[in-house]
Design goal:
Blueprint: H1 33-38, E1 63-67, E2 72-79, H2 88-104, E3 108-111, E4 115-118, E5 120-129, E6 140-142, E7 145-147, H3 149-158
Parallel strand pairs: 2-5
Antiparallel strand pairs: 1-2, 3-4, 5-6, 6-7
């Protein structure tokens, strides 16, 4: 069993037709050439064993939102068209990352431009749009809480100071755990 290929071909946001290269007519795949390579069985990897889904789970994270002036950051996973929650494997991996960052939050770290300073991790936020952006969606949810476009903007600008009282992680991370966010 090899890690799965990209789930779907890239499609047009307007009409959902698979996109094709205008020069060679090849259907475009979702992902970068490297991510597609990682999900294939590269030569010299013991028939893919090193990348086999029995051993490795690979996921991307959409955004690391860092307010470097106020010394805080958050993780953001974007979902479009009201997408259902991620796979169990992605939730598990992102949940582990969230727990490790919660444990390290507030500790001093060395930064390239600002020296040694404490950085606050303020949470993992799954932002789901009814369509594709705040501008074309009738609704937006952050960790399952309904917010307005203006509240989203304020949250991205101010983080926890925006006063939205959002959960700092989706409740799906807490399945079968005692995780405190």
């Amino acid at each position: 069993m090899v890690t799965r290929p990209a789930k779907y071909d890239v499609t047009c946001n307007q009409c959902d037709v698979p996109l094709q290269c205008p020069q060679c007519a090849a259907t475009q795949k979702n992902g970068t050439p490297f991510s597609l390579w990682l999900r294939s069985t590269p030569e010299g990897t013991d028939n893919g064993k090193n990348f086999d889904s029995r051993y490795v789970s690979n996921h991307n994270l959409d955004f690391i939102w860092h307010n470097y002036k106020e010394h805080w950051f958050m993780l953001i996973e974007e979902k479009r068209f009201g997408a259902i929650p991620s796979t169990d494997a992605q939730r598990d991996t992102h949940g582990m990352l969230h727990q490790m960052l919660v444990a390290a939050s507030g500790h001093k770290v060395t930064t390239v431009w600002r020296g040694v300073r404490p950085i606050q991790y303020i949470g993992y936020y799954k932002i789901v749009f009814e369509k594709t952006t705040p501008d074309d969606s009738d609704w937006i949810r952050i960790n399952y809480e309904l917010v307005t476009r203006e509240q989203l903007i304020k949250f991205l600008q101010l983080g926890l100071k925006a006063g939205l009282n959002l959960p700092t992680a989706p409740h799906s991370f807490k399945k079968n755990s005692n995780l405190q966010s």
